Amino acid sequence: MQDSVIRLENIDFSYGERPILKNVNLEIKRGMFMGLVGPNGGGKTTLIKIILGLLKPDNGSIYLLNQPMSEFKDWNRIGFVSQKANSFNKGFPATVFEVVAMGLTAKIGYFKFFKKQHKEKVLEAIRSVGMEKYIHRNIGDLSGGQQQRVFIARALVSDPELLILDEPTVGIDYQNVDRFYKLLYELNAKNDLTLLLVTHDTGVMTEYATNVACLNRTLHFHGDSEEYTALTTEQLSKIYGHPVQAIIHDHD
Amino acid sequence: MLADLLQFDFLRHTFLTGLLVGIIAPLLGAFLVVRRLSLLADALSHVTLAGISFGLLLEKMMLLPFLNPLYSGMAFSVIGAILIEKLRHIYKGYQEIGIPIILSGGVGLSVIFIALANGFNNDLFNYLFGSVSAVSQQDFWTIVGMATLIIFVIRIFYKELLTLSFDEEHATVSGIHSKRIHFLFIVLTALVIAVSIRIVGVLLVSALMTLPVASAMRISHSFKQTVILSIVFAEIAVIVGLISGYYLSIPPGGTIVVVAIIILLVSISVKRFSYILSKEG
């Protein structure tokens, strides 16, 4: 049996009186590339925040790497990439190297210093996303796609077993988005990294993801990407609560 | 001044204190500026003024003649910092609202303490604008101790402070105790301000924390480079400012800040110039 990386059981969450998530059950197993899709306001980001411990659910239980959330301490085994290409301080005087090195801060731990072996790890992570030419460049001088690759390197540098990405391609142009997904695909296929990707881009799901979950308040669909592709437009519209066109990107 | 420096203890104290302040003010300032908290320094310096006038009042009333106003200044500064944090939590989404509240509170209290003491004349003037002769032996050793502690703590928590400054959400998610590190940072800032006031004065202390950093940011790529350059710039400002202040009989706060502004203008024009050159080349 494959071991479980994330297991959510009967998650309910509401902001005050407004219910956001209702009875969400989701299991992500090691080696999966799970795409999480759903309409805006469907609770995708809320669910991610619950998984990351930034929000507490009203009901339900969460298991990360087979440990209950309340006992979970190994946060450096989980990498997170947010929509930061849009929102971080672009004038921040930090180089690509410094930003990626920040990914090791928690793993190195308090009262310990950044050493030579850590430097090697940082360089390796930068190479793995193909940014080695930009090591000493200021993060704010890079394009959105390049910045996002740096943030992936920052998440990868601590050797996580699970990488969570919340709409990482917002604000990145189309060609770079494609390269970005290919990078994720390789990380998943070659390095056996488990991925949870939140995205609007349903085309990605059919091409790269191994599994798909559709969230709108509750999980409407949860299965492998072939089953997702087989969904009819009518079924999709029902999930989204409004008509949608199933768009399948053809990359070749 | 060199001959005087060797001859007079107080001058030597002032000069060495100035050099120490030239390290710790921009060191902490670099984190303040990148976190867009520069105004925090202003608020805390005004609270420190309230603490100092409180100390002077007690001194004048002979209640606690051994209480150095530097200590009451530090205490008020740290309390002010904690209150700003509390206000930040009470008014979520209004991150900066604590700053004007604490700043005006500090000025208000200072006015009351000063009035109660029927004015302090010279002493207070020194605290407002800095002084080349105000650093007593006791002050000097307090400042040496505090500065050593501050540099040590920042060295230990450098990577956590930088990670938190760049991206608070990422820091929290990766398992860093963001709130505790932030609290440590705020307390350190309060102490730096209280310590720096002897040299540059209440009204100009935030300038020494932000101006050298603003200059350094224009021309450096990395955060480390920004910190080192801003310390170099601050030291130049302190040395030139103290010497010229001494000879011109001007409080050093004024001369130090003017030198720091000249450095800022130079760094802005250097950046422009190199930009134009790279465009043509």
Shape of chain B: globular
- The CATH superfamily label of chain A reads P-loop containing nucleotide triphosphate hydrolases
Strand content of chain A: 25-35%
* Number of distinct helices of chain A: 10
Low-confidence stretches of chain A: 246-252
Mean pLDDT of chain B: 89
The low-pLDDT segments of chain B are none
**Rounded radius of gyration of chain A (Å):** 18 Å
**Count of runs of 4 or more consecutive helical residues of chain B:** 12
Number of domains of chain A: 1
Order of adjacent strands in the largest pleated sheet of chain A: 6-7-8-3-9-10
The biggest sheet of chain A, with number of strands, parallel, antiparallel or mixed sense and barrel status, is: 6 strands, mixed
Percent range of helical residues of chain A: 25-40%
* Secondary-structure content class of chain A: alpha/beta
Largest sheet of chain B: none
User: Largest interface, by Cβ-Cβ below 8 angstroms: which chains and how many residues each?
Assistant: A-B, 36 and 28 residues
Order of helices and strands of chain A: EEEHEEEHHHHHEHEHEEHH
Break the fold down into its secondary structure elements and pairings:
The complex is a heterodimer of chains A (252) and B (281).
Chain A: E1 4-15, E2 18-29, E3 33-37, H1 44-51, E4 59-64, E5 67-68, E6 78-81, H2 84-87, H3 96-102, H4 105-108, H5 116-128, H6 144-156, E7 162-166, H7 174-191, E8 194-198, H8 202-207, E9 211-216, E10 218-224, H9 225-230, H10 233-240
Chain B: H1 2-7, H2 9-34, H3 38-60, H4 69-90, H5 98-116, H6 122-129, H7 137-166, H8 168-173, H9 178-200, H10 205-219, H11 223-248, H12 252-280
Helix pairs in contact in B: 2-7, 2-9, 2-10, 2-11, 3-4, 3-5, 3-9, 3-10, 4-5, 4-9, 6-9, 7-9, 10-11, 10-12, 11-12
